[in-house]
Write a structure and sequence with these properties.
With 320 residues, the chain is an alpha/beta fold. The protein is 34% helix and 19% strand.
Length: 320
């Protein structure tokens, strides 16, 4: 009986020791770029294209001493007729990225004078090509700034891009459209009319490629442009989207009744083509229409935005 009691006492001691050891284990510390390690951010507005008077809002964390930080370029939505660098989703992403230690840059880009002109596929292509050229100029501006005292404290080798809706269309094309890709005639005409592949928005002499892309309800004109030399991507899309199709279709079908405007392939075929090319790709499909993470009535973020945003943070962290 006494032997049994000794064994029970020993077992109790072992359990107690294990429990104490677990309690003594240090808590994981927040990780830069993965977690919000700063509480305050600043926003500075600067002109990146003197040719067209285009501005960007630069978000940085207050109190940061790091001087070589990855930078995330953000492009707002608005159907290429509206929106701005201060759209709610861009402000939120800019602030929350900066709290994690990134430099976040929300850009303005040239827009169409109204919705009706976009119903002409040639005009639509011209507007999209202009916006892509503006984004490339913004990226070149950031890289050029490194040679001018690096006022934003960025690492030119760690430039990412993402966008929402029209801005995602811009980001996807910046990530996947290469100077060697064969364009359909109307795209080629638009590109040559706007300064060629790099565009005419300024800051020549610096690279405009990015390291990875996040795509919130965007699309690409040709999935054939996606090849093994392109970048990783994470995509988010509503499966019933009637503005930018989830699959391949005309844009704005909900507003035009299926009028033949310009065809884009959305997140599903982008994901399939990326995987087929051997690229890293993540697809997040949600029930609902266009940008279900935003309230269609007031433009504010829904609760789904929390999930989308966290997946963006995780993706960017994985690509550093």
């Amino acid at each position: 009986m006494k032997k049994r009691q000794n064994w029970l006492a020993l077992a109790a001691l072992i359990i107690f020791a294990i429990a104490c050891k677990k309690e003594e284990q240090p808590q994981l510390q927040p990780a830069r770029y993965a977690d919000a390690i700063f509480t305050e951010t600043t926003r500075e507005t600067v002109t990146y294209s003197t040719a067209y008077g285009l501005e960007m809002d630069v978000y940085q964390p207050v109190g940061d001493t790091e001087t070589k930080r990855p930078v995330v370029v953000l492009a707002h939505g608005g159907g290429f007729v509206g929106g701005s660098s201060l759209s709610p989703e861009m402000v939120r992403l800019g602030q929350n990225l900066a709290k994690r230690g990134y430099v976040a840059v929300s850009i303005n880009y040239r827009l169409a004078p109204g919705f009706l002109p976009l119903l002409d596929s040639n005009v639509a292509a011209d507007v999209v090509i202009k916006a892509i050229g503006d984004a490339r100029a913004a990226i070149r501006f950031l890289r050029a700034s490194v040679n001018n005292g690096n006022p934003f404290g960025i690492n030119p080798e760690r430039v990412f891009m993402g966008g929402n809706s029209a801005g995602a269309v811009v980001a996807v094309h910046v990530g996947f459209l290469d100077s060697t890709d064969v364009l359909p005639p109307f795209f080629e005409t638009a590109m040559q009319s706007n300064g060629g592949f790099e565009g005419n928005s300024g800051n020549p002499g610096h690279a405009s490629e990015v390291r990875a892309v996040f795509n919130m309800a965007g699309g690409i004109a040709r999935t054939g442009w996606i090849d093994g030399d392109d970048v990783p991507i994470i995509s988010f899309h509503g499966v019933d989207d009637d503005v930018v199709p989830y699959n391949c279709d005309n844009v704005f079908t909900g507003a035009t009744g299926g009028l033949d405007v310009i065809n884009l392939c959305g997140s599903k075929p982008i994901h399939d083509a990326a995987l087929a090319a051997g690229l890293h790709s993540q697809l997040n499909a949600y029930p609902g229409m266009h940008v279900p993470w935003m309230n269609a009535n007031n433009g504010e973020a829904t609760t789904l935005f929390d999930e989308v945003e966290q997946k963006i943070f995780d993706f960017l962290f994985s690509q550093l």
